[in-house]
Design brief:
Its EC number is 7.1.1.2. One of its GO terms (cellular component) is mitochondrial inner membrane. It is found in: Mitochondrion inner membrane. It catalyses: a ubiquinone + NADH + 5 H(+)(in) = a ubiquinol + NAD(+) + 4 H(+)(out). InterPro entries: Complex_I_Subunit_2 (IPR050175), NADH_DH_su2_C (IPR010933), NADH_UbQ_OxRdtase_chain2 (IPR003917), ND/Mrp_TM (IPR001750). The protein starts with a helix and ends with a helix. The protein is built from 9 helices and no strands. The chain has one domain. The relative contact order is 0.16. 67% of the residues lie in helices and 0% in strands. By secondary structure, the chain is mainly α. The longest helix is centred in the last third of the chain and has 27 residues.
């Protein structure tokens, strides 16, 4: 009900605040190494997209919010299970959690909005409606505002998959005892990766 009351607010101010939020969240997260702060600034950036979606369509705002909740839940559940607190911790998780590490990488890319993952779905629909509303400049600025966020998501992925901690030949390697992730994590991760084929169905509800 609250979502349907928002469009009565001035549209221009909501759009400007959304752009500022998307830019601020991306730039503030560039130099962060703690995953909690990265996710916090990621939330600020996504809040900008949500504010713009509210001015375009309440149904689109609901879809954007639900997709972001799914992405966040999958990320946080994976980080809690792997006890990841900083970006450097990501380089040590592969030996113990090889499957979860791969899932964390793809979930991070989905959170960044890369196609063909689920995170691309709401951003695609928002940019489509902005263009249809004769606001191509706003759509271009909003798309460019995602580049800083995408940079630190790609940096997290690089640290996760392509780096390894320094070790010597006397290192005691752990057995891979955590090959099968829990079912609840697999459910949310699957949703965070495979929702894009539902785009035509969801677009008809806007």
């Amino acid at each position: 009900s609250l979502l349907y009351m928002i469009p009565h607010a001035p549209t221009t101010s909501m759009l400007i605040m959304g752009i500022i939020s998307a830019l601020l969240g991306g730039w503030m997260g560039l130099n962060q190494t703690q995953t909690r702060k990265l996710m916090a600034f990621s939330s600020i950036a996504h809040m900008g997209w949500l504010m713009i979606a509210l001015t375009l369509s309440p149904n689109l705002a609901t879809i954007t919010l639900l997709v972001y909740i799914i992405l966040n839940v999958s990320m946080f559940m994976t980080m809690i299970l792997t006890t990841t607190k900083t970006t450097m911790d990501l380089s040590t998780t592969h030996s113990c959690y090889p499957t979860l590490t791969a899932l964390l990488m793809t979930s991070t890319m989905s959170l960044g909005g890369l196609p063909p993952l689920s995170g691309f779905l709401p951003k695609w629909l928002i940019l489509k409606l902005l263009t249809a509303a004769k606001m191509p400049l706003m759509a271009t600025i909003l798309a460019l505002a995602t580049l800083p966020s995408l940079y630190f998501y790609i940096r997290m992925t690089y640290i996760t998959m392509l780096t390894s901690p320094p070790n010597t030949t006397t290192t005691e390697y752990k057995w891979r005892l955590y090959m099968q992730p829990p079912t609840n994590i697999m459910t949310f991760v699957s949703l965070s990766l495979l929702l894009l084929p539902m785009t035509p169905t969801l677009a008809n509800t806007i």
